[in-house]
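Need a sequence for this fold. Nothing fancy.
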Protein backbone atom coordinates (compact mmCIF):
# COMPACT_ATOMS: atom_id res chain seq x y z
CA UNK A 1 0.00 0.00 0.00
CA UNK A 2 1.16 3.56 -0.68
CA UNK A 3 0.32 6.88 0.99
CA UNK A 4 0.83 10.52 0.12
CA UNK A 5 2.70 11.35 3.33
CA UNK A 6 3.70 9.99 6.74
CA UNK A 7 0.65 11.48 8.45
CA UNK A 8 -1.74 9.59 6.14
CA UNK A 9 0.18 6.40 6.86
CA UNK A 10 -0.04 6.85 10.63
CA UNK A 11 -3.75 7.73 10.45
CA UNK A 12 -4.41 4.54 8.49
CA UNK A 13 -2.59 2.39 11.05
CA UNK A 14 -4.45 4.14 13.88
CA UNK A 15 -7.80 3.37 12.21
CA UNK A 16 -6.80 -0.29 11.87
CA UNK A 17 -5.63 -0.39 15.50
CA UNK A 18 -8.90 1.21 16.63
CA UNK A 19 -10.91 -1.53 14.93
CA UNK A 20 -8.72 -4.34 16.31
CA UNK A 21 -8.37 -2.84 19.78
CA UNK A 22 -4.79 -1.80 20.55
CA UNK A 23 -2.83 1.40 20.95
CA UNK A 24 -0.03 2.43 18.56
CA UNK A 25 3.01 4.65 18.69
CA UNK A 26 5.92 5.75 16.53
CA UNK A 27 8.86 3.40 17.20
CA UNK A 28 11.66 5.06 15.24
CA UNK A 29 12.54 6.88 12.05
CA UNK A 30 15.63 7.40 9.92
CA UNK A 31 16.66 10.39 7.85
CA UNK A 32 18.51 10.41 4.56
CA UNK A 33 21.59 12.46 3.72
CA UNK A 34 19.35 15.41 2.89
CA UNK A 35 17.90 15.42 6.42
CA UNK A 36 14.45 14.25 5.27
CA UNK A 37 12.80 11.29 7.02
CA UNK A 38 13.00 8.25 4.71
CA UNK A 39 12.06 5.32 6.94
CA UNK A 40 9.58 4.93 9.79
CA UNK A 41 8.20 2.17 12.01
CA UNK A 42 4.90 2.21 13.89
CA UNK A 43 4.33 -0.42 16.57
CA UNK A 44 1.87 -1.62 19.16
CA UNK A 45 2.34 0.52 22.28
CA UNK A 46 2.96 -2.64 24.31
CA UNK A 47 6.08 -3.44 22.30
CA UNK A 48 8.85 -2.75 24.85
CA UNK A 49 9.41 -4.56 28.13
CA UNK A 50 10.51 -2.04 30.72
CA UNK A 51 13.27 -3.03 33.10
CA UNK A 52 12.75 -2.62 36.83
CA UNK A 53 15.20 -0.79 39.09
CA UNK A 54 14.14 -2.66 42.20
CA UNK A 55 14.89 -6.22 43.30
CA UNK A 56 12.27 -6.29 46.03
CA UNK A 57 9.70 -9.04 45.59
CA UNK A 58 7.39 -7.07 47.87
CA UNK A 59 7.34 -4.09 45.50
CA UNK A 60 6.65 -5.43 42.02
CA UNK A 61 6.64 -2.86 39.23
CA UNK A 62 3.36 -2.97 37.28
CA UNK A 63 3.80 -2.82 33.52
CA UNK A 64 1.64 -3.20 30.43
CA UNK A 65 4.62 -3.87 28.17
CA UNK A 66 4.72 -7.40 26.72
CA UNK A 67 7.40 -7.09 24.01
CA UNK A 68 4.67 -7.28 21.38
CA UNK A 69 6.01 -7.60 17.81
CA UNK A 70 2.99 -6.16 15.96
CA UNK A 71 4.18 -3.34 13.69
CA UNK A 72 4.43 -1.86 10.22
CA UNK A 73 7.47 -0.32 8.52
CA UNK A 74 7.44 2.02 5.54
CA UNK A 75 9.85 3.93 3.33
CA UNK A 76 9.46 7.03 1.18
CA UNK A 77 10.31 7.03 -2.50
CA UNK A 78 10.09 9.52 -5.35
CA UNK A 79 7.75 12.50 -5.00
CA UNK A 80 7.42 11.86 -1.25
CA UNK A 81 5.23 8.76 -1.63
CA UNK A 82 5.32 6.33 1.31
CA UNK A 83 5.06 2.55 0.82
CA UNK A 84 4.57 -0.12 3.46
CA UNK A 85 7.47 -2.60 3.39
CA UNK A 86 6.83 -5.02 6.27
CA UNK A 87 3.75 -5.93 8.27
CA UNK A 88 3.30 -8.00 11.44
CA UNK A 89 -0.28 -8.30 12.67
CA UNK A 90 0.30 -10.84 15.46
CA UNK A 91 -0.07 -9.69 19.08
CA UNK A 92 1.13 -11.63 22.13
CA UNK A 93 -1.62 -10.12 24.27
CA UNK A 94 -5.38 -9.72 24.13
CA UNK A 95 -6.81 -6.82 22.14
CA UNK A 96 -9.96 -4.94 23.14
CA UNK A 97 -11.96 -3.03 20.50
CA UNK A 98 -14.37 -1.82 23.20
CA UNK A 99 -11.54 0.08 24.93
CA UNK A 100 -10.04 1.62 21.78
CA UNK A 101 -11.66 4.99 22.38
CA UNK A 102 -9.78 5.31 25.70
CA UNK A 103 -6.30 4.59 24.34
CA UNK A 104 -4.00 7.60 24.50
CA UNK A 105 -3.44 7.71 20.72
CA UNK A 106 -7.21 8.14 20.18
CA UNK A 107 -7.82 10.72 22.90
CA UNK A 108 -8.76 13.73 20.83
CA UNK A 109 -11.75 15.97 20.28
CA UNK A 110 -12.98 16.31 16.72
CA UNK A 111 -13.27 19.78 15.20
CA UNK A 112 -17.06 19.39 15.15
CA UNK A 113 -17.22 18.56 18.87
CA UNK A 114 -14.89 21.45 19.74
CA UNK A 115 -17.05 23.88 17.80
CA UNK A 116 -20.26 22.73 19.52
CA UNK A 117 -18.66 22.97 22.96
CA UNK A 118 -17.50 26.52 22.22
CA UNK A 119 -20.88 27.64 20.88
CA UNK A 120 -22.69 26.17 23.88
CA UNK A 121 -20.25 27.85 26.25
CA UNK A 122 -20.84 31.22 24.59
CA UNK A 123 -24.59 30.60 24.98
CA UNK A 124 -24.02 30.03 28.76
CA UNK A 125 -25.07 26.37 28.60
CA UNK A 126 -23.68 24.37 31.51
CA UNK A 127 -20.82 22.11 30.52
CA UNK A 128 -22.36 18.84 31.73
CA UNK A 129 -25.46 19.56 29.63
CA UNK A 130 -23.28 20.43 26.65
CA UNK A 131 -21.30 17.20 27.12
CA UNK A 132 -24.48 15.12 27.30
CA UNK A 133 -25.68 16.74 24.09
CA UNK A 134 -22.46 15.73 22.34
CA UNK A 135 -22.76 12.17 23.70
CA UNK A 136 -26.26 11.85 22.25
CA UNK A 137 -25.15 13.29 18.92
CA UNK A 138 -22.27 10.79 18.48
CA UNK A 139 -24.51 7.88 19.43
CA UNK A 140 -23.52 7.15 23.03
CA UNK A 141 -20.57 7.08 25.42
CA UNK A 142 -18.98 4.17 23.55
CA UNK A 143 -18.33 6.52 20.62
CA UNK A 144 -16.76 9.30 22.69
CA UNK A 145 -12.97 9.55 22.64
CA UNK A 146 -12.89 11.99 25.56
CA UNK A 147 -14.52 12.14 28.97
CA UNK A 148 -16.28 15.15 30.49
CA UNK A 149 -13.13 16.30 32.29
CA UNK A 150 -11.28 16.57 28.99
CA UNK A 151 -14.07 18.71 27.56
CA UNK A 152 -13.97 20.91 30.64
CA UNK A 153 -10.20 21.40 30.26
CA UNK A 154 -10.66 22.32 26.61
CA UNK A 155 -13.32 24.92 27.40
CA UNK A 156 -11.16 26.45 30.12
CA UNK A 157 -8.35 26.83 27.59
CA UNK A 158 -10.72 28.42 25.08
CA UNK A 159 -11.94 30.88 27.70
CA UNK A 160 -8.38 32.03 28.24
CA UNK A 161 -8.12 32.76 24.52
CA UNK A 162 -11.49 34.47 24.27
CA UNK A 163 -11.38 38.22 24.87
CA UNK A 164 -14.49 40.29 25.34
CA UNK A 165 -15.99 42.00 22.33
CA UNK A 166 -13.72 44.82 21.21
CA UNK A 167 -11.03 44.11 23.83
CA UNK A 168 -8.29 43.21 21.34
CA UNK A 169 -9.14 46.21 19.16
CA UNK A 170 -9.20 48.47 22.22
CA UNK A 171 -5.79 47.21 23.31
CA UNK A 172 -4.32 47.82 19.86
CA UNK A 173 -5.89 51.30 19.76
CA UNK A 174 -4.43 52.16 23.16
CA UNK A 175 -0.95 50.97 22.23
CA UNK A 176 -1.11 52.87 18.92
CA UNK A 177 -2.05 56.01 20.83
CA UNK A 178 0.93 55.60 23.18
CA UNK A 179 3.24 54.91 20.23
CA UNK A 180 2.12 58.14 18.54
CA UNK A 181 3.05 60.10 21.67
CA UNK A 182 6.27 58.22 22.45
CA UNK A 183 8.38 57.26 19.46
CA UNK A 184 10.39 54.71 21.48
CA UNK A 185 7.32 52.71 22.46
CA UNK A 186 7.09 49.32 20.75
CA UNK A 187 4.33 46.71 20.74
CA UNK A 188 3.36 43.59 18.77
CA UNK A 189 0.30 41.36 18.81
CA UNK A 190 0.05 37.72 17.68
CA UNK A 191 -3.37 36.48 16.52
CA UNK A 192 -4.49 32.92 15.76
CA UNK A 193 -6.26 31.73 12.61
CA UNK A 194 -9.58 32.99 13.95
CA UNK A 195 -8.15 36.46 14.71
CA UNK A 196 -8.16 35.88 18.45
CA UNK A 197 -5.39 37.41 20.53
CA UNK A 198 -2.82 34.80 21.52
CA UNK A 199 0.18 36.81 22.69
CA UNK A 200 1.03 40.49 23.08
CA UNK A 201 4.31 42.22 23.88
CA UNK A 202 5.14 45.83 24.66
CA UNK A 203 8.14 47.87 25.84
CA UNK A 204 8.50 51.62 26.28
CA UNK A 205 11.63 53.66 25.64
CA UNK A 206 12.70 53.41 29.29
CA UNK A 207 12.68 49.58 29.07
CA UNK A 208 14.71 49.64 25.86
CA UNK A 209 17.32 52.04 27.27
CA UNK A 210 17.53 50.03 30.50
CA UNK A 211 18.35 46.90 28.51
CA UNK A 212 21.30 48.67 26.86
CA UNK A 213 22.77 49.46 30.28
CA UNK A 214 21.61 46.49 32.38
CA UNK A 215 21.05 43.66 29.91
CA UNK A 216 23.82 41.40 31.19
CA UNK A 217 21.39 39.37 33.30
CA UNK A 218 17.74 38.91 32.37
CA UNK A 219 15.09 37.00 34.30
CA UNK A 220 11.82 35.82 32.83
CA UNK A 221 8.85 34.71 34.94
CA UNK A 222 5.31 33.65 33.99
CA UNK A 223 3.92 32.87 37.45
CA UNK A 224 1.76 35.99 37.54
CA UNK A 225 -1.95 35.58 36.82
CA UNK A 226 -3.31 39.02 37.59
CA UNK A 227 -5.97 39.59 34.92
CA UNK A 228 -9.51 38.38 34.41
CA UNK A 229 -8.56 36.32 31.35
CA UNK A 230 -6.02 34.23 33.32
CA UNK A 231 -3.39 35.09 30.72
CA UNK A 232 0.07 34.69 32.30
CA UNK A 233 1.83 38.03 32.65
CA UNK A 234 5.41 37.61 31.45
CA UNK A 235 7.83 40.42 32.46
CA UNK A 236 11.45 40.61 31.30
CA UNK A 237 13.41 41.92 34.30
CA UNK A 238 17.03 43.05 34.69
CA UNK A 239 19.10 44.32 37.62
CA UNK A 240 20.48 47.87 37.70
CA UNK A 241 23.66 49.15 39.32
CA UNK A 242 21.85 49.59 42.65
CA UNK A 243 20.86 45.93 42.76
CA UNK A 244 17.24 46.85 42.04
CA UNK A 245 14.96 45.16 39.54
CA UNK A 246 14.31 47.09 36.36
CA UNK A 247 11.66 46.31 33.76
CA UNK A 248 12.91 45.43 30.26
CA UNK A 249 9.60 44.54 28.58
CA UNK A 250 6.21 42.90 29.20
CA UNK A 251 4.09 40.22 27.62
CA UNK A 252 0.76 38.44 28.01
CA UNK A 253 0.43 34.78 26.94
CA UNK A 254 -2.76 32.88 26.17
CA UNK A 255 -0.92 29.61 26.88
CA UNK A 256 2.59 28.50 27.74
CA UNK A 257 3.46 26.38 24.71
CA UNK A 258 6.61 26.41 22.62
CA UNK A 259 5.28 28.56 19.76
CA UNK A 260 4.08 31.27 22.18
CA UNK A 261 7.46 31.49 23.92
CA UNK A 262 9.39 31.48 20.62
CA UNK A 263 7.27 34.35 19.29
CA UNK A 264 7.58 36.32 22.53
CA UNK A 265 11.38 35.92 22.80
CA UNK A 266 11.98 36.82 19.16
CA UNK A 267 9.69 39.84 19.41
CA UNK A 268 11.44 41.03 22.56
CA UNK A 269 14.87 40.72 20.95
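Here you go.
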Amino acid sequence: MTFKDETKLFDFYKQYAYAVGFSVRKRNSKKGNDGVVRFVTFTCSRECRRSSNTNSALRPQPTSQTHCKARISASTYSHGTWRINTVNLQHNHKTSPLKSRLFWCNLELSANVKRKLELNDIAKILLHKSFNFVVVEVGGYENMTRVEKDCRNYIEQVRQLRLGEGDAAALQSYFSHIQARCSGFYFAMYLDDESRLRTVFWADNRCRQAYKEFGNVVTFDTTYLTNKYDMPFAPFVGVNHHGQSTLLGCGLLSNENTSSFVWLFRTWL
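For context: The radius of gyration is 25 Å.
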